[in-house]
Amino acid sequence: MSPIAAEPGTTQDFVEVRLPAAGAYLSVLRTATAGLAARLDFTLDEIEDLRIAVDEACAILLQQAVPGSVLSCVFRLVGDALRVTVSAPTTDGRAPERDTFAWTVLSALAGEVDSTVADDRTVSISLHKKRGAGPGQP
Q1: How much is the pLDDT for 10?
Q2: In this model, does residue 117 exceed pLDDT 60?
Q3: CA–CA gap between residue 82 and residue 137 (Å, rounded)
Q4: How many domains does the chain have?
Q5: Does the structure show a pLDDT above 50 at 18?
Q6: CA 95, CA 98: separation in Å to the nearest integer?
Q7: Is residue 51 part of a domain?
Q8: Residue 6 forms part of a structural domain
Q9: Helix, strand, coil percent content, the chain, rounded in steps of 5
Q10: Mean pLDDT for all residues in the chain
Q11: Are 61 and 125 in contact (CB under 8 A)?
Q12: I need a surface site. Which of 65, 67, 116, 121 has the fewest CB within 10 A?
């Protein structure tokens, strides 16, 4: 993992995975999620929760991703937490609805969940899971 500047004078471990925006490739992200969470000594239950949350976030994005585009996933290891941000260019540039079952699942499994939309209609979903936090706790 390569360190990048997080704030002046600090570094942060990160991994970025870019792959075709298609469901057939999501197993790669699930495996990367599990490996990085294990590196932070997450419990088996926490690892599985995070794998499911990443999978769900990707599924939400793939519904509106531009056909043939690239799905980007950035994993940032920050202390005893893992922040995962998945992004894809979308056809309509709409943020995911927060009152859906899928968003409820994300929040329950990952703790903190947020989404943003860039000017170019790229939608991002960020998950922040802290080691030792119970379900639904950041």
Answers
A1: 47
A2: yes
A3: 13
A4: 1
A5: yes
A6: 9
A7: yes
A8: no
A9: 35, 35, 30
A10: 88
A11: yes
A12: 67
Q: Give percent above pLDDT 90 in the chain.
A: 78
Output 102 or 88, whichever has higher pLDDT.
88
- Answer yes or no: are the C-beta atoms of 30 and 96 closer than 8 Å: no
Q: What amino acid is encoded at 68 in this protein? A: G
> 131: which residues sit within 8 A by CB, 6+ positions away?
40, 41, 42, 43, 46, 80, 81
Q: What is the CATH number of the domain that holds 107?
A: 3.30.565.10
CA atoms within 13 A on the CB side of 127: 30
Give the residue-averaged pLDDT of 26-36.
Answer: 94
What pLDDT shows up at residue 47? 95
Is residue 136 included in any domain, yes or no?
no
Question: Are the beta carbons of 115 and 95 closer than 8 angstroms?
Answer: yes
CA atoms of 54 and 98, how far apart (whole Å): 16
In single-letter form, the type of residue at position 61 comes to L
* 73: containing domain: 12-130
> 5 lies in a domain?
no
**pLDDT of 79:** 86
Q: Which of 30, 42, 136, 137 is nearest to 84 (CA)?
A: 30
